[in-house]
Amino acid sequence: MFRTISYLVCFVSLFQRISFPQTSDYFQQAVNSVQVQNIRRHLQFLASDIFEGRAVGTTGGNLAAKYLGIEFSKIGLIPIGDENTFYQYVPMHGSKALSSSKMIIHSADEEIQLNLNDDYFLYRTGQQTYIPIPLELVFVGYGINAPEFDYNDYQSVDVEGKVVVYISGEPQSDNPEFFDGNNPTVYSYPTSKAKIAVSRGAAGSILIPVSENFNWEKQKLEFSFEDVTLAYSPSNNLSVLLNPNTADLLFEGTGYSFEEVLEMNNQKRLKSFPLERQLSFKGEFLQRDFLSPNIIGMVEGSDEALKESYVIVSAHYDHLGIGIPFGNDSIYNGALDNAIGVSVLLDLANTFVQLENAPKRSIIFIALTGEEKGLLGSTYYTDHPLVPLYKTVANINIDGIALFRDFKSIVGIGSELSTLSNYLNAAAANFSLQVEDIPPQFKQFEAFNRSDQIAFASAGIPSMLVLEGIKNKNYSEEEVLDAFIDYMINRYHTPIDDLNQNIDYTAAAQHAQLLFYLCYSIANSESIPDWYVDTPYVNARLRSIAERK
Length: 549
Ligand SMILES: [Zn+2]
Fold this sequence. Notes:
The chain has helices at residues 7-12, 24-32, 36-46, 59-75, 190-199, 216-223, 248-251, 258-266, 335-354, 376-383, 420-430, 447-450, 453-458, 477-491, 505-524, 538-546, and strands at 78-79, 87-97, 102-106, 111-114, 120-122, 131-139, 145-146, 151-152, 163-167, 204-208, 227-230, 238-242, 273-282, 285-299, 310-316, 321-326, 329-332, 362-368, 392-398, 409-413, 434-435, 463-468. Strands 1, 2, 11, 14, 15, 18, 19, 20, 21 and 22 form a ten-stranded mixed β-sheet that branches. It has 16 helices and 22 strands. Helix content is 30%, strand content 23%. Mean pLDDT is 91; it is low at 1-22. α3 (36-46) packs across α15 (505-524).
């Protein structure tokens, strides 16, 4: 479990000194030089249809990379990418399952073929998912093994070489000590479940979504895009999302219908048991290999000793590209996800370059590729860092920017994990903002794991994503919360996350000012951020320091 530090405790540590060597007038001037018009100019261009939704390895995606390289150069950043350019090329493998793929459910006397997109989606596609000889299926409840809660869905069943079937979610209770009560834990994530299945020796996994909010038609949009992995990443085995309407088929012959399994779940008496049907799979795929760049530039630190240490400011520039039309619009522009974040990154870089006195440590700006495909650019960077990881003191990731001007509160996603919270609290205090916890309605979105900060954290670098909170001068908390929920449900990852939305550039600039202050204070501080003890990333940090990597 993560050790959570209450904000009350964090506020006490506000008094830790974070130094600004320049006069506050000068500093305020710098903060004020964050430019609304720059952010608007970049966003209007990057989110326009010219870039066709900026998918990795497409004309539009490559064009966006080119634009960013040119802007990095105009701003005057130092190129630290491949061969002294701004580009770090990331080798990727793309694959798209075709409807001629054959997934077959076998019983003694019949074979039933399931249809891709109607009955199932593939989380990962490619040759590694081939299952020529029918394999046994085993139902494993939620598919969770959590020793710290003394909970194991795999305890009574043998799944070695078989395909496991599980439902979404995790045990629910009012006991906060058990799976965090009714809040979701990491165990509820599909990726965690698939990992557990692999670690138990399963040859594949099938997830049946059972949440009330689940919408198969919406998933069709998400799964219509090419599956992309790092070219060198180990292959995953078969990982399937099954339409709950098709689930009955798997339970035939067991004495339980899927309805009855759901009833067991409602009554909190879910159990694991072998299924009578078997499964085979032969995929047909369109595949390709290509390169897509991270764009990387640096502002050198002003202190002779400390400039050899680094703060990374990152924002992903890729989005989904062209997909299933929504109305008559098929371009997924990703204006808020994350053209606006990378526009803010450009303006921050410009503001830092324009400073008369740079902060003591160096700052590296990275426009990351492949975030939407599974944090590929950030994972590649931490596998192939351009400056030593152990000398990289922090990562501030930008993915999404404030929707409403005059926000009165902010949320530091990941701030409960490290002393970056001290810097965040100090920055918040400077702008008279409150630091608040993530609204419970959004816990299910597993925020820390959902964007590139997790890749930096996994490499041991304290990282954080700063978002606006729900307190605002002009709107009630309910209004702000409703707008967030509306975005997540109706606009996120659809073609209407585009420039036709009401975009508040003043809000973006206010957010950018806060980020400028935050990044400056980290880069200028003598002390460096540390993970709190017992967080899962401490060991990675200790290892990179020991190995001087
Ligand atoms: Zn996204």
